[in-house]
Amino acid sequence: MSNSRARKRSLLWEELDSSRNITARTDKSVSEDESDDGTGSGTVRTASARTTTSTTTGSNVVRPTTLLHTSTTTDSDSNTRPDGRNTSSISSLSQADNDMRSLVSVGHSSGSDSELAELLGNGTRHLHSMGPASESSCSTTTQTKSDDVDSSNVVDDAAEHSVRHLPVHREGSLSIVSHDSSNVQQNQLGNNQRIAIDDSQPMADPGVEMGTQQQDPDDAGQYTFLGPEADVVSSYQSPQDEASGSSELSSTETMDTSHPELLRNEGQEQPSADKESLPNMDELLFPGSQLTKKESLLLIMSHFLRYGLSQEALESLLQLIQFHLPEETPFKISKYIFNKEFDGLCDSLEYHIYCPSCQGYVGTSSAACVDCEVFVEYEDNMKSGNYFIVFSIEKQLRDMFQNPNIQSKLHTENSGMEQSACYKQLPLQEGDVTYTWGTDGASIFSSSNYSIWPLQLMINELPYAIRRKHILLGGLWFGADKPNFASFLKPIVEEMNNLSSVGFAWNKDGTEMTTRAFPAALACDSVARCQLQGIKQFNGKFGCSWCLHPGERVAKGNGYTNAYPVRDLDNLPPKREERSFQNDAQRAVESNAPVNGVKGPSMILLLMHFNIISGFAVDYMHSVCLGVCRTLTFLWLEATDMPCYIGGQTRVLNERLSKLRPPSDIVRLTRSLTKRSYWKAHEWRVWLLHYSPFVLRNVLPRSFYNHWMCLVTSLFILLQSDIDAVMVNQVELILAQFVLEFEELYGKEYMTYNVHQLVHLADTVRNWGPLWGTSCFAFESMNHKLNKMICGTQYVQHQIARKFLLLKTLPLVYVNCFEGNDTMRIFYERNVNYFPSTTPVRVDFSGQSLRGKPQLVHLNDMEMHFLEQVGYQKPHALAYKKMSVGGITITTDQRQQKRRKRVDCFVCLVDGSIGVVRRIFLLCKACNAADMCECEKECMLYLSILKEVRQHFFSVETPDYEVGHLGLQKIIGHKEYRLVSLNEFHRKCVHFSIGEDEFVSVLPNRVELD
């Protein structure tokens, strides 16, 4: 096994060496033909950009040639598998090797190209994970890479560029048809439009085309589906049903991870398309019905996906619906035909196999494993579950950007990264986007070690509330072991490089746009990070991802742990650099032993525009919330032999917690400290930032409390939307002092890697902006959603992939549906997690939602005085008790009742003032009408401004500044009244009453909501 690993590292390094040496010779290339279309949302580029190269001035960027392969090869013996299936549409893996050489010349070196070539040498071996070799050369010869365009029908350049990822839909399935002449997506459900499909072969290889699209020669780019008279060669056999009931897997059960479409029950007869077919789907469900048959299927599927129903539950639901229909209704639908209608939306998946012995990458066809030289059969490994799923990132981006709701939100808000150092180094042009990405394992069964490892991406140029709802999937690994990232990342890195060099085409208002997508921060926990980087784990020597701290083996309990003590702030360990990391990887390959913790080259070194050191961000969710915060709280309440112990006062702490009524921005209500073992990361975050400063006050010993408040203050500053560079430097000093004092207060054995990562938090903010932009909260939430898609223990990865793609595609296929019926449309949109429409009683001119029934209130003298100053002259005005501003709920103090568990009336203004909302007015300044007139109106808040204690609640001195926690305030009553516009509203506050004292804690930002 050690020899196999050494050979694997050697091959990986030699391919990296070769690819760099080849591409380092190219210093310039021809620029793309670009022009700004004036929309500000993208850049119009010529269709031939994919076969040209360009150089971005001043950024050492080389775009590769021939990245989008168009095959001119038809039937050939070399492209035929032993089972007779044509594989010409699958790119040659050796050709992929050569393409990867042309890809990797960017973003990895601080020196010149000649220095890099001289440093890395002239290796020519292929990267082991690129698959078996062939004799195709890295020249203008190209082969098909598309998953869904038949290689025997090559379309013209522009048309192929825009629809090369159009999925092949099955007969009668719900379709998304792209018509380039009108640049409008039209959708059809039913038998009116079909594709002739040869389904005689099993659907094991998604890279092999299953049908042919016919193109009108007189209209390039116009794609026409075959009509109802098209012959169906053979009926499609649906996947086996998922097991119903509990999702638990006992230790004696066998996990079936095979591809469901390869495991056919020969003795079970499946209905054919001739026996079961659907009528015209645009007809009413029955005479007098308020919805069509197509709308009925869409509503049922949206309900099926939202609540994660099993196939058995779906069948029962269909029967139940059938019972409620009139007896003469000719709309008889079975579970089989229902699933068949939507299968066409899930054909854009790729299934990549790996070696069952060493997990080395094999590809999408049978081949010999380069690592162990064992021949691996594609079908056998698909049946045994030795494969992972790759999603088309390009197709997901195209579908997302062609959504008008998404288009209107791009580049509209500060993503938190624009001013960061690493973001500025990316060769971004107008309309280009970046994405934060990451991967983490999620256990799916409590009685087994099976887990899923999805690779997720989040577009940074979208508002945070929207980007976390529209997360993309790049790949999905499922099994009992952790993934081999050299195999898992190989096809994903290749597509990422394609997206950053060539980009993807999409349609905006009839104009074809081309947008490039660049990798930004990679966020993950410490366990996954060391595997992605190819270094030792944090409990080994030199296990830090950002510096060369060797660690120290110290006794803890009955064993030992690897601690990271800090001796002196002036002599911190040196930071890692990418060039030295590459040298260490090369030396590790040569010596077959780790060098400075580096075990060998990582697949991420092949990713363009990504620095393997600074590209990784410290995830404060894992390192701080679930790490330092949780550890210290357990020490305070359980370590009876330490001076910080306060476990005897748990009752007092719980009483204080029980009196808290957080705002609705904090979704999880407060739970007792006795249940802290079950707290989630969000609860630890709220405890750290808002609850603990008041709950622990005068309970935790003073020295420990002041030390803890240094961490609280630092995190509050680093989580704000806009952070001053000077303040980041001061926070870095505070955190370094916190780490230095940590050993003195708690002991060297508690100087864990999580504590050590606090030293690198400031660098993460400098490189990628505020911590909320690179945290794993959104990814962990997505893991939970993926877990909810599982019903039973069979074909887990296929269940997730199918339901995920349906959720991504269904929002695009209901065009011209639910017309005139807003209730059904809102129900459908909410089910598929689209942009649900709200139904407020009144919406003012700025788009803020006013909720509830308005009241015509009589104004008192003080209210009339302020309203007259803004031009309102009536003695009555319309007032609301509840409203929503950018998704943030604000209520008046009239809704603050003891029976309510939340308080949403305390707000912080732009000038830092704290106030209580008394009234929410909707004013007409034009006609001064006190009713619902048609004039333009303005929403204003009538506040009672609170008097605050002048001194800081807590402050810490640095050599140059006194840094105070501006978010914690003690209030001592009413100060004045004020009428403010919504533009003066800044953030919400958490209110506390401890005895006779009242406190408020301001939320650090308006975007990171639970």
Q: Can you characterise this structure?
A:
The chain has 1010 residues and is of the alpha+beta class. The strands form eleven sheets. Strands 9, 10, 13, 14, 15, 16, 17, 20 and 23 form a nine-stranded mixed beta sheet that branches. A six-stranded antiparallel beta barrel has the order 30-31-32-35-37-36. α20 runs antiparallel to α21. The longest helix has 22 residues.
* SS elements, strand count: 37
Mean pLDDT: 75
Count of helical segments? 27
Cα shape: globular
Main sheet record:
9 strands, mixed
The proportion of residues in beta strands is 15-25%
C-alpha-based Rg, rounded: 30 Å
End-to-end distance? 46 Å
Structural class: alpha+beta
Flag low-confidence runs: 21-253, 262-275, 835-847
Helical fraction: 25-40%
Write a compact overview of the structure shown.
The chain is an alpha+beta fold. The longest helix has 22 residues, at 2-23.
Which secondary structure elements does this structure contain, and how are they paired or packed?
Blueprint: H1 2-23, E1 34-36, E2 43-45, E3 55-56, E4 61-62, H2 93-103, H3 113-120, H4 157-163, E5 175-179, E6 184-188, E7 214-215, E8 223-224, H5 293-306, H6 311-324, H7 335-343, E9 349-354, E10 361-363, E11 367-368, E12 375-376, H8 378-384, E13 387-391, H9 393-401, H10 404-407, H11 421-425, E14 433-439, E15 442-443, E16 451-459, H12 464-467, E17 472-479, H13 485-488, H14 490-501, E18 504-508, E19 511-515, E20 517-523, H15 526-533, E21 552-556, E22 559-563, H16 578-591, E23 616-617, H17 620-638, H18 650-658, H19 681-695, H20 702-718, H21 725-746, H22 753-757, H23 761-768, H24 777-788, H25 796-809, H26 822-831, E24 842-843, E25 849-851, E26 855-858, H27 861-869, E27 876-880, E28 882-885, E29 888-891, E30 906-909, E31 914-924, E32 937-948, E33 955-957, E34 962-964, E35 968-981, E36 985-994, E37 997-1002
Parallel strand pairs: 14-20, 20-23
Antiparallel strand pairs: 1-2, 3-4, 5-6, 7-8, 9-10, 9-13, 11-12, 13-17, 14-16, 15-16, 16-17, 18-19, 21-22, 24-25, 25-28, 26-27, 27-31, 28-29, 30-31, 30-36, 31-32, 32-35, 33-34, 35-37, 36-37
